[in-house]
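ingest -> validate -> predict -> emit
validate: passed (alphabet ok, no gaps, 237 aa)
predict: started
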Amino acid sequence: MNLIIQNIRKELLENIDEKTKNTFQRFFKDKVKCYGIKTATVGSIAKKYWKEVKDKNKKEIFELCEELYKSDYTEEAFVVSFWGGNFIDFVEEKDLVTYEKWISKYINNWAKCDGFCNHTVGDYITKYPEKVKELKRWAASPNRWMRRAAAVTLIVPAKRGDFLKEVFEISDILLLDEEDIVQKGYGWLLKEASRQHQEEVFNYVVGNKDKMPRTALRYAIEKMPKELKVIAMKKTQ
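emit:
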């Protein structure tokens, strides 16, 4: 086993917090594998070891990430997510293939999905905006985590007002998704897009409110004024 991985796991084991361990599962519907460590502590450990990792070549860094993912521990996936904030310095257009593989193969809860996609994949799409079309393919995947990834990858860009056209296209694909974790994902995306494009998002929600799952709808209008929420929530007779 790589010495860096070995040392990371040793520190994770040394920082198990019993309260966190006992409450961790309640945030997830499906069974998750965890040490039970506070997120801030995982972040500190990830930051510490990034100093050892950052001067390695990309192939070595990606191999370390994959090794962490293979354990299935949520906190080890968090280390990858924390490191991923630095990937933008060296990421190449071809690396979306690796990101997609990691999501499809290793991501199996919303925390792993959001932690990796919000920034690492979101930064990639910002750097290579022509690749945003790939997210529409992800949105049609049979893998629910890939479908959620299609939406939550655009959270940060949408918050800035970017990719509105793609926000709606991805939402169209996911509109009738039966998985609540996917509904929450694209509802969250619409909510963030509404910060800069309230009218457009409101019109989209109202135009789809009779078929959009209520879970997604409630997320989408969360930042809107009360009077708009009332209109959006009222079903057409």
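The chain has a mean pLDDT of 96.
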